[in-house]
Amino acid sequence: MAKPTVSLPQGTRDFGPDTVRKRQYIFSTIRSVFELYGFQPLETPAMENLETLMGKYGEEGDKLIFKILNNGVDNKNKEQLFRDGFEKILQGKNTKDITERALRYDLTIPFARYVAMNQGQLSFPFKRYQIQPVWRADKPQRGRYREFYQCDADVVGSTSLLNEVELTILYAETFKRLGVPVEIKLNNRKILAALAEVCGGVEKMIDITVAIDKLDKIGIEKVEGELEQRGLDADQIATIRKYLQVTGSNEERIGQIKALLGSTTSGAAGISELEFILGYFDQLDRPPVAVDFTLARGLNYYTGTIFEVKALGANMGSIGGGGRYDDLTGLFGVPGIPGVGISFGVDRIYDVMDELNLFPPDVQVGSQALFFNLGDAEGRKAFSLLQHLRNAGVRAELFHENTKFDKQFKYAEKKNIPFVIIIGSKELAENNCVIKDLRTGEQKSVSLDELVNFSFL
RNA sequence: GUGGUUGUAGCUCAGUUGGUUAGAGCAUCAGAUUGUGGUUCUGAGGGUCGCCGGUUCGAACCCGGUCAUCCACCCCA
């Protein structure tokens, strides 16, 4: 057998039948909760104009955007144009002469682009969900792929904090249905801004958040070292230390942060927003939320509440994230449309569920029943019964050839088909069949008229 | 982008200081077994040792490069 030399681009994967079924289970669970909460579906193209994406994800993000080479760069008439363009690329600049399109990096920016383009037609608040792949030129590693799915739900055209409440509960409900134990972390950019304000000015905010975000990974001393490196003085670092030492229940944490930053305008605003959201949960089944003031999140368009979901008991980064943005569409010339949204990382959710063995066993069941093929006349009878069952909505198939039991059993076992239906010469004569449940080994004789009423579950 | 790990049969992995024809388990296929599988036994097929080059009388093994993988960093879902 010649060994195939074909391969896949780095960081991409094929999904076999079993994997697709398990992924579909996650997708359909998320989709049905999205629909339940009143979100409407949207799809956008895999590629966007490069300028739509550039500059929206920070300097690091720009590097991770997959760019598409223009067609026709071998056109001799334009050779000089392309040579000049290539020179610019070598200097780290982009030029439309070489590349003007790119694969989408997330679903939020394309959505903002869509809203900006269609604001006249949309009725606000507009609630949309979107389930599509995105691409990032990251170096692959655990839980990181170059092609992966995001499932986003966003509400635009409303500043109401009720949206945050709903999205939090939507997170909780979805992970409850999937059986994934999670912690939903909440913070507010205004609180981070307040911290920056009292520690050297708002322009230091990114430096500060990047450093404190690493707290649980590198420890408080290294965070302080990093802050020092980024130009903060001892007083400021002392304040941040106090900020990072906030502990206890959600209420206790808020109390401590109030003492620290409650006197600033943005600090007070952020705190009251958080309190509003948390207050709503008192009258409900409390979702697993945890206020975490070290949560920062990289995307710099967030302005208010920020979310992040961590799977409990699994070695995996965040499996979901989101936040509020005041003016995303402003980037596309349509100011004044605020929004808030969340995202599910399906590929990571899959990895967690696989690791923790959380997929229900019946997810893998394709066909519910297999008719054994035991001869020409038997096979013909089985085929007509097969069609009856299919018309009644039972997923079923007939073994493709008359062969020994051993093979037919093994086929059923391998395809995880729970029931086999045996019609041999004896059953043909008696007008009945044997139905065997392979999971329990039990079998019984059923008349052919009754077969269609049998419960294949 | 930086650093490291690994790459031998479909899968998981052995393979001595470099030495004849590269092995095992599982899986597959065939038979023992003509209508009740999963156990057991027997047998068979399946490898350019990731790829390219170098050192050597001789390379799966040493060296260089390259590709892929996994892991960590950066960043992120």
Describe the structure.
Pfam families: HGTP_anticodon, tRNA-synt_His. This is Histidine--tRNA ligase. It comes from Terrimonas ginsenosidimutans. Keywords: Aminoacyl-tRNA synthetase, ATP-binding, Cytoplasm, Ligase, Nucleotide-binding, Protein biosynthesis. With 457 residues, this protein is an alpha+beta fold. The chain folds into two domains: 17-44 and 105-355, BirA Bifunctional Protein, domain 2 (2-Layer Sandwich); 365-453, Anticodon-binding domain (Rossmann fold). The chain is built from 16 helices and 16 strands. It has helices at residues 17-36, 50-53, 58-63, 79-90, 108-118, 162-178, 189-198, 205-212, 215-229, 234-244, 250-261, 265-281, 346-355, 376-391, 405-414, 425-430, and strands at 40-41, 47-49, 67-68, 101-103, 126-135, 147-156, 182-188, 289-291, 305-311, 318-325, 339-345, 369-371, 396-398, 419-422, 432-437, 443-447. An eight-stranded mixed β-sheet has the order 1-5-6-11-10-9-7-8. A five-stranded mixed β-sheet has the order 13-12-14-15-16. A three-stranded antiparallel β-sheet has the order 2-4-3. A hairpin with a 5-residue loop joins strand 15 and strand 16 (443-447). Helix 1 (17-36) crosses helix 13 (346-355) and helix 8 runs antiparallel to helix 9 (215-229). The chain is globular, with a radius of gyration of 28 Å. The model has no long low-confidence stretch (mean pLDDT 89). It binds one RNA strand of 77 nucleotides through helix 3, strand 6, strand 10, strand 11 and helix 13.
